[in-house]
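User: Sequence in, structure out. Go.
Assistant: Echoing your sequence, followed by the structure tokens.
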Amino acid sequence: MHPRTVQETLNQLKPMQTCQELPRPAFMSNSSTEKVVLGVESMQRHMTDEGWQITNGLACQGYRHCGYNLDYPQTNVRKIVEHTNPSVVVVQDIREWDIQPGNFREPEARFESITALQDHNSLNVTILKDAHQNPLYHRQAAIDMACHAWIVYYHPRIVKRLAPYVREQDLIRTYHSLDLDHVPLWNNVRDGIVMSGAVSSAYPLRQRMRQFQTKLGLTWLNHPGYHRRGCCTPDYMQFLSKFKVAVCTSSRYGYALRKIIEATAAGCQVVTDLPVDEVLPEIDGNLIRVHPDTNMNILRSTLEQAVANYSHDRQYDFALKAQFRYNYPTVISHLANAIEDKRIEYNATTRMSVPNGSTQPATTGQVS
């Protein structure tokens, strides 16, 4: 059975009919050199820390890091923009700071007066991580912050299907990232196959593999649960480094999840059901793709062959490529450039606006 494609994935995702695409909000150029990112300091202690890497990475690129317990410890957005007059505002995913009762996240991180962005001449960008989660909620958030663009980790066509309120031309693609301090030293003593993660209906292949765990010869690592008691990534990557092969499923949404990059950086050959035309820069050659409906006997043979053919030299080369391309200063440097390209493109589109207020089509922002 051939690996699936993005189009096949789209065909199996039911479109949401009640979440119409948002029109582009008005944009007025701002010549200020100040840029701000609204972050959540406690995310560096979340179970997984990629959300911290993206905002801290932008801070390293010259953005002012605003939020509770951060360099600019202000959570009132109106006060932030009045004081800094930024040309760009990047907002962390609203789920990370619009805290609901009983949630593990830091309640003090909540931002107030986010609608102040509607009245400020800045390019307003937000992070949209899990596009399938509560699209009507995220649509309203985009309205509230007069969102001009979304930073997304996954294939733009898939994001658009799951979150139809976004404008595909205004999706800025980035990738999951690594902290090189969390990558273990190379381990030549390794064997077997590892698989990890939550088992739910979002992961049909993972569910089936869990059922046939013994037959497939898998070592299973349970999901630690979401919390802010400390980042689990260093221990996770150390565990990965003991194995030759890691199975990293991409969910029914075909997401290029962080596990794929982490496993490659830790020296594993990766078996995945990631769509074949969702290509990961530099490390795609490390992926053995299977279809989510692959027969378990065929999958067992694929896994056994991957273990038998494991090459330390080849995997060391891919590990270095992953560490070089996906270390978070590099990833976020590409992202910062893409955001600036989007700001320039918005300026140009505004100048090309016709009298009725419509604009010329724009190209999709993408981090290469």
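User: And one key feature?
Assistant: The chain has two domains: 11-176+328-348, 180-326.
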